[in-house]
């Protein structure tokens, strides 16, 4: 089998790739750059002639029997999936050769070959000559630029052949893109060309690397002029003569109007490299904001290098300059005035950027606090994972980003998976912050060699869109000085954090705050119940929690059917301690024992797979909601250690997994997604399980005024247990406790708590009423509301801002054994008892599907939802309809994905009506399936 051959290949040898010649030249003019578009590949095992220099000559080998892939970048497994030899739905390289057309350029023209990412080392050959060996071209992030001008074909009719001999990756030795304990090793260990190899034609002066852009936007931002600094390294590729160059930078506003043009004249000695720098003042700047706070206008910077002309224009000022060479040295003075725009184009580059100011500092507790445009920002995000086979899909990432924003989050964290440059551009356009940094090292104490680490850092240096740099491993601390020297040349609106030197509980990355200790997935453990400084309460809400969570993320049945056998699905609920392949057999997370211990104790042993899954979704929803609500409630605390940021572990999976996600591999949102979304509303009302307090949360920059919270508690018969009203006022970017829920001490069976936050539209004074009602009257509610982060529904001259329902058992909250915490979980000594839920009577829910409203526009990134429907749910019963979920399905009954629901997994009071909206990208949905804990499954056609 080919798959077995791949194992042999990766363990015992290397291989080669070869691609068909392109019908037209890839590049034909200065400044043009193109990726090698396709590859042929095979294993070197059985290759009769292993003279790789000879194989790299045009026509030197017959590749008709090799594997072929129409992709510019892929690992071995990624290529086999792309060309159809393996199917993604059934599954769960090694070396390459490519031809490209091009001729040796005339004098003072050059070809540059750039490797942006080969995993993890390779020998490069071009037209029979070796360009680099594996000792130099080593490390998955080791992007190098090679001047191959003298190696390209001399005549136009002659083809060029590039051979890349990729050596098998060894995760425990090589600097590769691995996954630690996230998932199993891919069969090819990630070996291959995972980023584009590009060919670029330039004149005698080339830009070595992309533009670096820094923004100085004084506060208050937008009210004062901003200064944009554009910087690029210029290299004279002529080794025998000096070159006089005219450089021009043009900055344009988001509508394309030119803001300003700057010119520089620079003389470069033979072979010299120096930085050229331009400064442009932007008046009345249009400010970039995170999505929840405003718009994302993007400016454009374009830099051109010209040679051989007399120069034109005016303006001067110092350019960059100084010494340096391939390692990227810089500094010093530059050329004088004049120049720019005359002569022949030698090279060109363009980049977009936003005008913003992002800072990070340590507060009094040694925790990281970010600010954006002068406003404190609580970072709320998740840990992003690349695909297991390092396949990049820009449209898929745009959907992931939309999901992140829909959940109310504002950031993603990349732990050693820097992905493709397109990721940062998509995040910039959508208003999403990116935290990047090293991954955990497999061998403690081993640090990157300079030749391997510098390109990786330089990749992030050039990504001015990245908003922070973080470490994930204490063993990297001794390497920080060299990292700081390189990042001293980073765009100055990036922020850099490292572990604090002593003091505090060091975070898994961004310096600080909370150790990466994960509470057992046993329920609402986010609200810390002890010391105000958080010490000894691992996983609780304080500081910057850069890598923590309950580890939940159980897929729903439609997704499980795609990657589990019938026996696997039986094991989920019949064998709670069994190791499962789609967890991770290389770590403590091979079984679901900790998770299942809580589920069994709190809800009772499951009676079927369907019963297990709904109890799992209850567990997942409750866990993520509690964690995000706790962090949001304690965000600006003045009396205890504030919770400055949270990165949930994890956002998504590299493969179909049974845990660690907020939506599954097939893009199906479930309990962990909607628990996060509920807790992360712009305005929200939350319940503290420990103190039984009610918290008013405001994450906006502009919402303020009077608010009313209505508190209702009913039992499983629908009878009123408690009714209270609390009045307060809200201020932007704050949280405050507004009251306490009374009457819960005598609870003997499960009760349901509903919090509703209202905004009084007529601004009348609100009278505080904390009376507790304990009678047996049946409560009715015929109000209609839409629950949506972005939509506010008005009812009786009051706007419903947030609606939130909890289920509470005797004792209300689990009891945690803090003293016996391990690095990955905190034991539970007593679980809250939800087993009385089995007595809940069946509820009858009517479902009404509204007509579809269509939207025009792009189907990618921010404007991708093509149509919306309103789904109306009405509980016709006298008992609560508990944990009702909705799912779109196609004609075959399969999940119709991706999808955005305004809310899901909702609980309806007796006789209550809710209107939910659903947005979909595709036209395949034919019906909506509705089910609940005590609601029978029903399907309603569109």
Automatic annotation (TrEMBL):
InterPro entries: Beta-gal/glucu_dom_sf (IPR036156), EBDG/EBM (IPR043534), Galactose-bd-like_sf (IPR008979), GH (IPR017853), Ig-like_fold (IPR013783), Ig-like_GH2 (IPR006102), Ig_GlcNase (IPR041351). Coiled coil: none annotated. Gene3D superfamilies: Galactose-binding domain-like (2.60.120.260), Glycosidases (3.20.20.80), Immunoglobulins (2.60.40.10). Residues 823-935 form the Exo-beta-D-glucosaminidase Ig-fold domain. Residues 1-21 form the signal peptide. The keyword Signal applies. Keywords: Glycosidase, Hydrolase, Signal. One of its GO terms (biological process) is carbohydrate metabolic process. Residues 316-339 are annotated as: Disordered. One of its GO terms (molecular function) is hydrolase activity, hydrolyzing O-glycosyl compounds. It holds the Pfam family Ig_GlcNase. Residues 224-305 form the Glycoside hydrolase family 2 immunoglobulin-like beta-sandwich domain. PANTHER family: MANNOSYLGLYCOPROTEIN ENDO-BETA-MANNOSIDASE. This is Exo-beta-D-glucosaminidase. It comes from Beauveria bassiana D1-5.
């Amino acid at each position: 089998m080919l798959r077995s051959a791949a194992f042999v290949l990766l363990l015992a040898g290397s291989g080669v790739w070869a691609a068909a010649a392109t019908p037209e030249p890839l590049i034909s003019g200065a400044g043009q750059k193109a990726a090698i578009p396709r590859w042929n590949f095979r294993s070197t095992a059985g290759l009769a002639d292993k003279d790789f220099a000879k194989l790299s000559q045009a026509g030197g080998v017959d590749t008709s029997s090799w594997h072929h892939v129409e992709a510019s970048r892929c690992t071995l497994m990624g290529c086999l999936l792309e060309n159809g030899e393996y199917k993604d739905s059934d599954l769960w390289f090694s070396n390459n050769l490519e031809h490209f057309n091009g001729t040796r350029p005339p004098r003072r023209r050059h070809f540059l070959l750039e490797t942006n990412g080969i995993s993890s080392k390779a020998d490069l050959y071009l037209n029979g000559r070796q360009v680099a060996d594996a000792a130099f071209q080593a490390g998955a992030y080791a992007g190098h630029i090679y001047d191959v001008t003298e190696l390209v074909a001399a005549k136009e009719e002659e083809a060029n052949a590039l051979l890349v001999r990729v050596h098998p990756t060894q995760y425990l030795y090589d600097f590769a893109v691995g996954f630690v304990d996230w998932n199993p090793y891919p069969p090819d260990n990630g070996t291959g060309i995972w980023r584009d190899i590009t060919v670029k034609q330039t004149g005698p002066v080339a830009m070595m690397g992309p533009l670096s852009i820094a923004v100085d936007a004084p506060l208050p931002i937008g009210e004062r002029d901003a200064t944009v600094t554009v910087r690029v390294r210029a290299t004279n590729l002529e080794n025998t003569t000096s070159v006089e160059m005219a450089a021009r930078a043009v900055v344009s506003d988001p509508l394309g109007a030119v803001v300003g043009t700057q010119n520089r004249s620079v003389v470069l000695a033979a072979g010299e490299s120096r930085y050229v720098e331009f400064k442009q003042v932007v008046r009345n700047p249009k400010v970039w904001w995170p999505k929840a706070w405003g718009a994302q206008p993007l400016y454009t910077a374009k830099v051109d290098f010209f040679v051989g002309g007399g120069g034109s224009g005016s303006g001067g000022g110092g350019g960059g300059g100084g010494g340096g060479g391939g390692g990227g040295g810089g500094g010093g003075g530059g050329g004088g005035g004049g120049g720019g725009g005359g002569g022949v184009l030698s090279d060109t580059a363009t980049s977009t950027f936003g005008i913003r100011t992002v800072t990070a500092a340590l507060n009094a507790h040694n925790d990281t606090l970010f600010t954006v445009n002068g406003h404190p920002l609580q970072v709320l995000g998740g840990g992003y994972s690349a695909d297991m086979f390092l396949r990049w899909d820009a449209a898929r990432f745009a959907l992931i980003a939309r999901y992140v924003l829909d959940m109310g989050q504002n950031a993603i964290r990349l732990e050693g998976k820097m992905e493709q440059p397109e990721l940062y551009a998509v995040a910039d356009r959508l208003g999403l912050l990116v935290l990047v940094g090293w991954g955990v090292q497999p061998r403690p104490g081993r640090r990157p060699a300079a030749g391997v680490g510098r390109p990786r850092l330089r990749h992030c240096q050039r990504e001015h869109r990245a908003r922070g740099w973080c470490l994930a491993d204490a063993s990297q601390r001794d390497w920080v000085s060299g990292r700081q020297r390189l990042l001293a040349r980073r765009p100055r609106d990036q922020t850099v954090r490292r572990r604090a030197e002593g003091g505090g509980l060091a975070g898994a990355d961004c310096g600080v705050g909370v150790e990466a200790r994960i509470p057992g997935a046993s329920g609402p453990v986010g609200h810390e119940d002890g010391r105000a400084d958080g010490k000894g309460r691992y996983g609780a809400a304080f500081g910057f929690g850069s890598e923590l969570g309950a580890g939940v993320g159980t897929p729903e049945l439609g997704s499980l059917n795609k990657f589990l056998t019938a026996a696997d699905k039986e094991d989920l609920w019949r064998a709670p301690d069994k190791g499962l392949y789609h967890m991770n057999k290389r770590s403590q997370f091979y079984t679901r024992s900790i998770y299942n211990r809580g589920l069994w104790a709190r809800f009772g042993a499951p009676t079927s797979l369907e019963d297990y899954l709904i109890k799992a979704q209850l567990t997942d929803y409750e866990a993520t909601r509690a964690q995000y609500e706790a962090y949001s409630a304690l965000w600006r605390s003045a009396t205890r250690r504030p919770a400055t940021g949270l990165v949930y572990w994890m956002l998504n999976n590299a493969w179909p997994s049974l845990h660690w996600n907020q939506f599954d591999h097939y893009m199906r949102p479930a309990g962990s997604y909607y628990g996060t979304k509920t807790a992360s509303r712009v305005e929200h009302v939350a319940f503290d399980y420990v103190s039984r307090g009610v918290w008013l949360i405001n994450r906006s920059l502009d919402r303020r005024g009077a608010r009313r919270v209505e508190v209702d508690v009913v039992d499983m018969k629908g009878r009123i247990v408690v009714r209270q009203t609390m009045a307060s006022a809200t201020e932007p970017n704050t949280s405050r406790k507004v009251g306490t829920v009374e009457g819960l001490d005598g609870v003997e069976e499960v009760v349901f708590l509903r919090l509703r936050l209202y905004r009084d539209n007529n601004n009348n004074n609100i009278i505080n009423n904390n009376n507790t009602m304990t009678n047996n009257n049946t409560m009715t509610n015929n109000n209609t509301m839409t629950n949506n982060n972005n939509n506010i529904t008005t009812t009786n001259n009051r706007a419903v801002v947030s609606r939130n329902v909890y289920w509470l058992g005797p004792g209300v909250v689990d009891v945690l054994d803090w003293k016996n915490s391990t690095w990955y979980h905190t034991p539970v000594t007593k679980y809250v008892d939800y087993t009385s839920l089995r007595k809940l009577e069946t509820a009858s829910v009517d479902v009404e599907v509204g007509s579809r409203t269509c939207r025009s526009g792009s189907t990618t990134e921010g404007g991708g939802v093509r149509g919306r429907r309103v789904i109306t749910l009405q509980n016709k019963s006298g008992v609560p309809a508990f944990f009702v979920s909705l799912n779109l399905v196609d004609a075959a009954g399969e999940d119709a994905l991706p999808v955005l629901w305004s809310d899901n997994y909702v609980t309806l009071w007796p006789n209550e009506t809710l209107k939910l909206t659903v947005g979909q990208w595709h036209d395949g949905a034919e019906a909506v399936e509705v089910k609940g804990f005590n609601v029978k499954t029903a399907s309603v056609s569109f």
